[in-house]
Amino acid sequence: MPHAEVDPSCSRILIADDIQQNRELLEAYLIDEGYTLLMASDGQQTMQMVDQHHPDLILLDIMMPRMSGYEVCARLKADPERRGIPVLMVTALNEMGDIEKAVEAGCDDFLTKPVNRLELRTRVRSLLRVRHLESERDRLLAYLEEMENRVLRSGS
Fold first, then answer.
1. How many domains does the chain have?
2. In a domain? residue 1
3. Is the pTM for the entire model greater than 0.70?
4. What is the mean pLDDT of the chain?
5. CB under 8 Å to 61, separation ≥6 — which residues?
């Protein structure tokens, strides 16, 4: 079975890191992939950007002012409207406890800095593929439910 290809021009990625050089590096690694790239410099701005732009993926630093990446991730995953957004934690922290805490907060994947370009691009592509397949599944389920309701209404 062939894997689903994702049209990059349809994908919005939010890069959240308090250090501008880190945001610029991730942007440079992804810019020629065709994604729409959005930037946030702290946890609160990240939450605002999620509400305004509904990204398909978030690259999230852990150590940020005004709200840590752990807290941002936990809030997103606790919200039924936003829990489906994949979160890729990108951080200099690499102790097992840090990884466990990120997983407990609900992150979908984890990369340590310095980030390898190929690894980043591969994981982004994979997470976006899953995100778009889940969106398509949800659309199909809604359509089937609508058709079922029409059949039930027309039969009564």
1. 1
2. no
3. yes
4. 90
5. 16, 17, 18, 19, 22, 69, 89, 90, 91
Q: Is the pLDDT of residue 106 over 80?
A: yes
User: Residues in the chain, how many?
Assistant: 156
Determine, yes or no, domain membership for 145: yes
Confidence of residue 1 (pLDDT cuts 50, 70, 90): very low
Q: Identify whether 89 is part of a domain.
A: yes
Instruction: Report if residue 81 sits inside a domain.
Output: yes
CA 35/CA 15 separation, integer angstroms? 12
Reduce the DSSP state of residue 22 to 3 states and report it: helix
Could you give the CA distance from residue 69 to residue 58 in angstroms, rounded to a whole number? Answer: 11
Mean pLDDT value of segment 99-128: 93
CATH number at 13 reads 3.40.50.2300
Q: Say which residues have a Cβ less than 8 Å from residue 65's Cβ, sequence separation at least 6.
A: 18, 42, 43
